[in-house]
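Problem: given the chain below (851 residues), write out its structure.
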Amino acid sequence: MTPQAEVDLTNCDREPIHLLGGIQPFGALVAVNGDWIVSHHSANFDEMLGAGSAISTGVQLAQILSSEALGRLRTALARLRGTDPVERIFGMPMTGGGPLFDVALHVSGSNTVIEFEPHDAVGFTSHVGTLRAIMTDLEDRSEVQGLVDEAARHMQRLLGFDRVMVYKFHEDLSGEVIAEARESHLEAFHGLRYPKTDIPAQARALYIRNPFRIISDVNCEPVPLIPQLSIEGRPLDLSLSTLRAVSPIHLEYLRNMGVEASLSISIIVRGKLWGLFACHHYSPRTLPYSLRTVAELFSQLFSLLLDRVLTDIGSQLSAKGRELHDRLMARLAGGVSLVESLPTLDGVIGEVIPHDGSSAYIDGIYRTRGAAPSEEQFKALIPALNSGSTSRTFASNELASRIPAAQNFSHKVVGAMVIPVSRRPRDYFVLWRKELQKSVIWAGNPEKPVEYGPNGARLTPRKSFEAWQQSVTGQSAEWTTEECQIAESLRVTLLEVILRLTDEAVQARARAQEQQELLIAELNHRVRNILNLIRSLISQSRHEATDIASFSELIGGRISALATAHDHITRDHWTPSSLAELIESEAHAYLAGKEDRVTIEGDDVLVAPEAYTVLALVLHEMMTNSVKYGALCDSSGSVTLTLSQDDHKDLCIEWRERGGPPVRAPERRGFGSTIIERSIPYELKGDAQIRYKLSGVEAEFMIPGRYVQPGKPRTGKTAEESRVPHTMERSAGSIPGHVLVVEDNMIIAMDTEDSLRSLGVGTVTTAGSVASALESISKDPPEFAVLDYNLGNESSDAVAAKLKTIGVPFVLATGYGELADKLEEHGAMGLLKKPYGKAELSELLEKIARG
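Solution.
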């Protein structure tokens, strides 16, 4: 039983505590309707007031009380406002020249109940001053424990009781003595726990309506009401009475404990019963009404101070929650999902909410950290978890008592703080706690069977206060109210993170879609330009060619020059590319092994993509003419290209040929001359000058500075060292008689076949897929192979592996840029870059033949 238990639970339904039919003997009571006394009054009423005659129903108050007393009573009655109000009058004479009384008025149904107690004239004036000093001392307390300890001490000093306790209700409605002030010879009750059944629900409700309970002498007989029932057959409701008697069972408890007087005052915070001041005295003690009023006022002021402290603690928790929010938002700003961010979450949250492990279940993905159930064990909880609220956290220090499936991992963890972070499908972030074996000291066995005594079924009073220790297993440390509040703010934070990630994902998809559309449009634009350029090259080149072979050579060379330029500018994602590399690549196409006849002087520069292809065609035409008619057509001539930038950062390219045969100006100006002389001025708004001197061709080209930026310092590499390697690491000794061509584009395959046949290869087999290539190899293994690496939705990896296994040399062909890493991986002898033609295949076969 609690220090101020109301009544045994077994009697509650039969004897509601707010309808008891008597009052304590130190006061008197009368119920009136208007000016008339109705059927309820205490048997000692006339004795207390000295009326001199027995009171009966229907007597007017004016026959008993003075006109002054009636006036003050009516004034007090007019002040009754709100819910369950009680008005007090101190030191009022009820009859002419009679003693002074303290009076309390309240309304009970259709009646007004007036209670009379003798006035304490001596102590009345000192109580208020005492209260002021007490409250000044308590003002400085900022923690709950310090506040309740001081309150218990001051309350004992104020009221003079042997023991004053502060009793707090827990979430499970059990109670605990959290503070105590007592005489030194008394045993301590501090820390004792009491089951929730000790104070029934109706008693808790009454403690909110009427916060004061006084028993001056447990051995006094209560004064009965006359009559017990009204003319309508109803008892008088004494719920708000200050004099009402208590249950005889409760009096029996107090007597068996040795307590002869008791007092309890409710501690109400924001309309809820937070706890009680429970006072015991071991001899009769009657407190004057004025002192009890001061004690009640103290309790109300204390409740306000407690509310302030709890609010401050809540504000601190809110600040911690905001700090946790800010830290998590900062650390999860990288767009990483919650499941992948579990280590970060676990570390940050662990500084605020202690736990032994954590789990995240997001979008069907489960991750854990520390002590936690397995994925299968957690998924067994999901049906039960999904039945709970989506907008609140759920905490239990004994999860298996709520969800039986949790028993399967009780050897790991037993307590859980479940934080839902979505609606549908349900996603969860969970904090776990391991089992914490502990002992709880109860004021008597909370599971003790009921015994029978003279007042019916109830616990044996004296033994119910003997300390009883219970060993608790299968439970973790409790999740405090503060931790649950932080977890609730954490739920909002995690929701915000998920929403932000969702928004970022949507935005990323939108950006990707826009980028894809832009890339498709750009690709379409470039492909159309290239196709249009090639068509124009074909159309213009036909005027220069004298036969099909020369026409094919002209077109092939120019397309190859464009391809080389595109290789350079796409290798670095369509950014400015090296001019020196372009010159070296073009020289290598004609002077394999003799690139030293082309010299580059000056610092390299990077040329923008839109100018790079123009320069590629110009340099290709210059190199082609030099190989055919100029300094590079014999074995003695050379070409020098000088690169420089003027004051305006314009690029100047000087072309000088020396040591070749005498030069004559062309008699007929073909398309190649047009490209050299007009493309740079026309497309780039630059300048082009060419002179056909007898000693060699000289030319100057000016590229506006907006297309040029400084390049990397030249390392002195030759053109052979700078180009993509074509060196064969294996030799066949002669031109192979059987070559396999794996190419998924039929036209390219046919062109490659024709070129190889014209170069002397006897048998050429073509295959358009991996399957057909492997079948061809198994039937008739080739002596050499050209493999297009990318075959639509598959690659030539399997074919390369097969050829490597049987020792057949091969090269890789690609239009997707560098494949240098694949050469070594697959054992390829070299790389052919698309578009390739007869010239590139001829060079390849010559190297094979040279061994």
